[in-house]
Amino acid sequence: MNTITTDNKSLQQRLKALKEEKNAVILAHYYQEPDIQEVADFIGDSLELAKKAAQTSADIIVFAGVHFMAETAKILNPSKKVLLPDLNAGCSLAESCPPDAFQNIKSEYPDHVVVTYINCSAEIKAMSDLVCTSSNAEKIINSIPEEKEIIFAPDKNLGRYLIEKTGRNMLLWDGACIVHEAFSLDKLLELYKEHPSAMIIAHPESEDHILKTANYIGSTSGMLNFVKNSDHDTFIVATEAGILHQMQKDVPHKTLIPAPAKEDNTCACSECAFMKMNTLQKLYNCLEKETPEILLEESLMKKAHLPIQRMLEI
Ligand code: 13P
Ligand code: SF4
Fold first, then answer.
1. pLDDT tens string 136-161
2. Which of 3, 145, 188, 277 sits CB 3.0–4.6 Å from 89 for a disulfide?
3. What residues bind iminosuccinate, as annotated (predicted)?
């Protein structure tokens, strides 16, 4: 985890001044480095960030998150300049679902309703009937008439969880989040033995055996609200470790323990290498030079906008 140094502080101040000068807004996901979160105008989960991007009156949106999030911002507010500090900040879920292969599945099941998790490319969104995020997925699935069959992509873990929650039999794409698939059940149970009064909270991108141990399952914002409103004092947190920064600020007197990953790692917590490609320096540089910018074809944006708009209406 990053510590805030004097250098970072002065960079943050320069960034704030630059932001005002250019009428820019910085939107950051909870998985970003603490020093990025500290300089953001808004921190949120993927649904909240999409809504903020759609509503902003700023001229420039600097997206401190990953590529699919910045693309979604551009689709929702195409007249704005959308910047992403590092264009390589991808996502294993988005990468698992190439448009050609997805088109083949769609053609095999032409009558299925296609629901995609927001963690996918604009091309995949453009092939979808509905988009969802981890905080509204259950509601979105329940909005589909019972007699309709469903393809759900790209997260098989979230998909399996939704099948259990909604009772709907969905055809699942075989994608997964490399961060949430890396939690170790054995290590988690060992940790729980050491902290038997802890509540285990997990993101639904986690594997089934991790979700089975959880007292609460929800999106990043859902987890934050749960910890804030719970009477418990200790939480084992099964999601990307960036969330601990905001969580600890919300509940300074509670104990938060990151769920352990299968691989040995020095910080004993799980970090998304894609999310962590963004740094404070890259954030500054990208606003100063107004690049890298997210640019999408008009026709692709129009097609991808429809299923996202349907989601926002539901
Ligand atoms: P949420 O922000 O919807 O909780 O999703 C987490 C995630 O993995 C984003 O990449
Ligand atoms: Fe993608 Fe997982 Fe990273 Fe989120 S945490 S951006 S789902 S790889």
1. 999 999 999 999 999 999 999 999 99
2. 277
3. 29, 46, 117-119, 134, 203-205, 220
